[in-house]
Amino acid sequence: xxxxxxxxxxxxxxxxxxxxxxxxxxxxxxxxxxxxxxxxxxxxxxxxxxxxxxxxxxxxxxxxxxxxxxxxxxxxxxxxxxxxxxxxxxxxxxxxxxxxxxxxxxxxxxxxxxxxxxxxxxxxxxxxxxxxxxxxxxxxxxxxxxxxxxxxxxxxxxxxxxxxxxxxxxxxxxxxxxxxxxxxxxxxxxxxxxxxxxxxxxxxxxxxxxxxxxxxxxxxxxxxxxxxxxxxxxxxxxxxxxxxxxxxxxxxxxxxxxxxxxxxxxxxxxxxxxxxxxxxxxxxxxxxxxxxxxxxxxxxxxxxxxxxxxxxxxxxxxxxxxxxxxxxxxxxxxxxxxxxxxxxxxxxx
Length: 349
What we know:
Shape: globular
Radius of gyration: 20 Å
Number of domains: 2
Low-confidence stretches: none
Mean pLDDT: 96
Number of helices: 11
Number of strands: 17
Oligomer: single chain
Helix content: 10-25%
CATH topology of the largest domain: Quinone Oxidoreductase, Chain A, domain 1
């Protein structure tokens, strides 16, 4: 069946309303009527082919919230009317070590992304959530707590779980001292979630005016990273840092703020490599630099349940689909607090 969607026909053209073909419902699938879809910076990268892997026509969107319209014959986890979410993945091999360990994001065959991937049933390109409907395997669909504001839930499906995964993997506990670099879509969720876990959060920012917002979101301390005196005052004070900045920058000043055995976790993906860090403090204080990729389906559900218990959602600005290009432009300027979300039901097709 054909559905309406916001489609990029090529890298040099703006997204525009069009139609795409939705694949047939399989026995393990659910069909979702999309109500909200978050706007991730990677959507812009993919629409413009800035990573060199985009296939057109392309429909972005992997922060999806909607209502189940139909379920395949084998579906046991969901029924029509359920409020559900879909994140970055819609399939994986299911057989490799990581899939068997419920870490599908590290599937050795490569997971199937929600958009710009290859649908294993049809061989066609997968289409994302800037659309009216989505069909996905039930194993890659998650339940949404009923008490949460749905429009503000959508970014949790990518931004939320991307920072939740390292917080859980490195077992952040109450009283731990957590640093967060950058107060954007990822960073603001890192502050909220780390604070709710009981950690003492320090936000690093280049913008002093973000301090008040950071404290509102749960940060105990705000450090302007361009201020050498402020950076010196917090040396060897942190257990772990989540680096949420998607631009190349010097890692050495942040390594200096870690305690012995501290961990600097890279979450943002820059378009060029970071400058090489100085390994000397890493050797003498057993510091580590690591990276993390989104989160598993199990972690996504765990994070949503935690957010339901603590009433945590993203700070969002709602737009209609026809505003997507102006949203992209503002996102490039850092002019959003802190995530755009498309209201599909208000979008004019």
